[in-house]
Structures are given as C-alpha cells and as structure tokens.
Amino acid sequence: MDAFQNLGFWRTLLVTVVLSALPLVFILLYALVTIYLEMKVAAHVQDRLAYMRTGWHGVLQPIADFIKLLQKEDIISVAADRKLFILAPYIVFMGTYGAYAAIPFSSIFIGAQIDLGAFFIVAISSLVVVGILMAGWASNNKWSIFGAVRSVAQMVSYEIPTVLAILVGVMITGSLNLQEVTKFQAGGIQDWVIFGGPLPLLQKLLITPFTVITFLILFVASLAEVNRTPFDLPEAESELVQGFFTEYSGMRWALFYVAEYANMFLVSAVAVAYFLGGWGSPFGETLSGPVLGFFWFVLKGMVLVFLQIWLRWTLPRLRVDQLMYTAWKVLVPFLFVCIVAIGLILVL
Amino acid sequence: MSAARIYFNNIWLALSTIAIGMRITFKHLFVRNVTTQYPDVKRKMPERARNRLYVNMDDCIGCDQCAMACPVDCITIETIKSTPDVDLGTTSTGQKKRLYVPVFDIDIAKCCYCGLCVPPCPTDCIVMTDVYEFSEFDRHNLIYNFSVMTQQDVDVARGKLKKAEEEAAAKKAAAAAAAAAAKAAAAQAPPPQAAPPAPSAGAPPQPPAPPAADSPDQAGKPS
Asked: Mean of the per-residue pLDDT values for chain B?
C-alpha cells in the first residue's frame, strides 16, 4: 500500500477495487480451463472423447455451459430457510476468494502483504465449512444435510494435517508470509523446500525424505479439504445426489462450482508456495521475472490441479471410517514424526 | 503379523495400488478412443441388418404374398388385371407381369422389422435396407407409397378392364343366348313334358347367386 500514499482516498479505493478484482478474473478464466480439462481427462481416461461439437474439440463448451447457467431458473424450495439458503453460496465463495488475497502470484503481485499469510489462508478458508453447513442445513433436505455433516467432519479433521504440513514449511522457511517464503527458495529447483531448501548439503540430504513425505501428506490432506475424490463424500453423487448443493440451481449452483474449482487451485497454490518454490523459476535466475514468475506459478499450480483431476478419475471414494482413519491414524502421526525429525535436523 | 507391521503394510499397499491405478489411467489418456462421432461418422450396418423396407416396383408382380406374410398388416396392395392386348413386360427374374399395381403402401410406423415379407417374394423385389434414419414429425409421412402409377394410369387401366369385361360379358351373353336358342330349338322337338318343376311349398326361396367377382380390382392373385 506504500505506493498509493500520494493518490488520495478515492483513487486509492479505485486502484484497490481494480487490483482486488484481478484474482477474480484469474479464477473465472482458470475455472473455464479447468472444467474443460477435467471433462477431457475424465473422457480420455475412459477412452472417450468428451465435448467435440462446440468449437474445435469443444473448447467453447465451458462458455456455453456458463451462459446456460446464467439464464437458468433460480429455484428456492418452499421448505428451505430462505435467508441462509441465499447467503450460503456467497460465504463459500467469500472464504475461497478471501484466501486468494495472500497468494503471491508473482514477485510484484500479491493481494495483501500479510506477515501472517499462511495463517490467514488457513483461517479464512475455514469459512467455507460454515457456508457448506449453512447450505446443507438451509436446504432442508436429507441428502443436503448428510452432505453438509460429512463435509464438516471431513474438513475439520483434515484441517489438522494441512496445518501441520504447512507448519513444516514454516519451520524450514521461517516465515508465514508467502512472498518471503517464495524468495527463500529463489535459487532454483534444488532450493525448493520439497528438496530440503537452501541448506548445507548434509542437512539437505537428511531432511529431504521428510519434506517429500510432508509434501505428499499436504497434497492428500488438501484433496480432502476441497472435497475431491477419493474424499468427495460430501458430494458423493452416487449416494447423495449432489450433497450439500443438491437443492441449488442456476447461478447459485455455479457459485459453489466455481468456489470448488477455485479451492482446488488455492490449496495447490499454498503447496506450490511452500514446497515447490512459488513463482520462482526452476532454473534459478534464468527465465525469472515478474511475468515469467506468474507463468511458473500458474504452471506449477496447474500441474497439481491436473494431479487432482487424474486422481479423481483413478480412485473410488473412501468410506467415512476409512476417511477418519486416514486423517487421524496415518497422516497426523506421520506428520508428528516429520516435524520432530525436521526440527532436530534444523537444530543440528 | 504384528499390529505395527499390519499398519505399515496397509499404508504401503494403499500407496502402491494407487500408483498402479494411476499408471493405468495415465496410459489410457493416450489410448485411441472408441467413440464414433455419430452424425458425422456412421458405422456400417451388418450385412443382413433389417431396417427400412424398400420395394422395387419394376419387379413387383402384385402377388400380395408379402402382405399376407406380414404379421402386423402394414402392407396394403391393390391390383388391376391387365387386358390381353397390353404387355406389362417381365421382371428381372423373367416372370411375366400380368397385374397393374396402383397401390403399394407400407406403413413403416407399424412395421416390426421382422423381415417375414422378404422371403415369400417370388421376384425378390421387397428388401430390407440398412437405412435407419427416417424419423418424421408427422406420423402420416411414415406411410410410404411405392406405386409408380399416376391417377391417370389407374383410370386408363380400369377403363380398359371394364371395357374388356363388358365385351367378355356381352360375348358370354351372346354365346349363352345362342346356346339357349339352340337348346330351345332342340327342345321344340320332344314333347314339353320337361317343364320346370313347381317349387315345393315349404322350401325357402333360393338366394340370388353371388356375382362372379365382387370388383375387378380386388381379384388379387395371378392365375
């Protein structure tokens, strides 16, 4: 905000609004691309073709879908709790979008330079849980409430491995500010935290197995955080129709959908910032710069998003007890071991 | 196995099987897909596929056998006898055509695609093709008229037949009259004892004899 000091109140406000709308533009474009990618990956995994008729290989289909959703009837069932029902999608989207404020897209672009960035992201994305419970409860529908309850149980449990895994990153990089974290790993691929960060060689060799495990756990836990397969119990289309947003239609439904996809990129972005060098080029100084930095950041994020999609079309859904087992008896103990080991190695 | 070994074994099993599954799905990303882009690309139907019926009217002799074989009565055939002076030609199988076919309708909406009409045809003129895209908005468009005769042709054919029949009837009447005259002449010689017997009292009157054919165009079969 230092740059805006001489602009006066109204101009500052204008600049702020424009700049805060940039991630929104990014999210919408990214959602179009990712929905297309998801459908294509889903189809080709099953030896099918997916969209073929709207534009070249159906590239315009997400846009057509979006236009269709815009003009769909907005249905609110009579028995629903009207106020909560209307409010829920906004809260879900707000929780997701708020977290984008602390995501460093490039060396020159980050929504807010918060020193508690990672903490802020974890805290504000918990708002999504509130929105989902709200949606499920307000729908007054058994499927929705089942979905919402499952979602809350799942997201609250998986918040713990997520936070612990981020804690490992914080221990190594020594910062919660994602911009600082990224600068810490600026030296290229060998300096990324997943490979031990810029430490002396001996420490690096000792620490690498633990950081790799931590990264894997962060990825698994973040899958559960965003309700993706194999942890898509809240939506579970074969059992719960569409879980907590069964009753939604039109633009409200689209808002949930966009929030879901935005969340996928969000968790990937956090993982990229802490473990894969953020916007830093994998070749150190070469090919780095603000614009290329944005490119690297999005590329790394999209690789993780692709991994999520790939996993979705490979794995079946877990049972609720298996889900809890995975969180509490596997991920958390492993992370405790990792934290202790990494702490000891860092003290060395 | 101890509990700890089971625990680690389970984790290892989960990770390794996920890796196997992901390898398989990744391979399938590059496998040639099996989709046929239907309206653009059409699969070839099997050789003996039974779809839309087609009648080659050049070969039809109006024998009505397909209509009789049809289990759902979706084929309607009407015929007109030709007079000896016209030559309707022969079919591609060498059979002589003796009947005009003014009506040959197939209601394809009723058709059950059993194919039973095809084998009886003596000239192989009714066949099942591999065309299967013939949806219509109006049901009446599904009644296919195969006859190639115009109304004028039909009138001409009818007129000719009528004339021929009248001539034949006149001839017959003349012949009958001549025969009756001859008979009467012969009957003149013996005494008139063979007068028609008087109708018995209780017998009902005889119904009039039915005409030889109800209408000329209903006389379906060839001799």
From this structure: 81
Cα–Cα distance measured from residue A266 to residue A304, given in angstroms and rounded to the nearest whole number? 11
Q: Is the pTM of this model over 0.95?
A: no
- For residues A302, A304, A309 and A313, what is the CA-based torsion angle, rounded to 10 degrees? 150
Host H or E run for residue B128: strand B126-128
A226: Cα separation from own chain's centroid: 7
pLDDT tens track for B147-163: 888 888 888 888 888 88
Tokens 């940039």 correspond to A22
Judge: B22–A311 Cβ closer than 8 Å, yes or no.
yes
pLDDT of residue A1: 47
Q: Are A147 and A318 in contact (CB under 8 A)?
A: no
Using a CB–CB cutoff of 8 Å, tell me whether A45 touches chain B.
Answer: yes
**Residues in chain B where the model's pLDDT stays below 50:** 194-195, 197-205, 207-223
Query: In this predicted model, what pLDDT tens digit does every residue of A329-342 receive, in sequence order?
Result: 888 999 999 999 98
Cis check for the bond before A230: say yes or no (omega within 30 of 0): yes
A202 touches chain B (CB under 8 A): no
> Which of B9, B28, B37, B41 best tests the A interface by mutation, with the highest count of A CBs <10 A?
B28
Chain B residues whose CB is inside 8 A of the A47 CB are 28, 31-35
What pLDDT shows up at residue B201?
Answer: 46
Chain B positions in Cβ-Cβ contact with residue A49 (cut-off 8 Å) = 33, 35, 37
The residue with tokens 């008139």 is B192
Least CB–CB distance from B21: residue in A315, A329, A330 = A315
Per-domain boundaries in chain A: 1-71, 76-347
Q: Can you tell me the distance from the alpha carbon of B60 to that of B223, in angstroms, rounded to the nearest whole number? A: 16
- Which of A31, A18, A172 is closest to A96 using CA atoms? A31
What value of ipTM does the predicted structure carry? 0.76
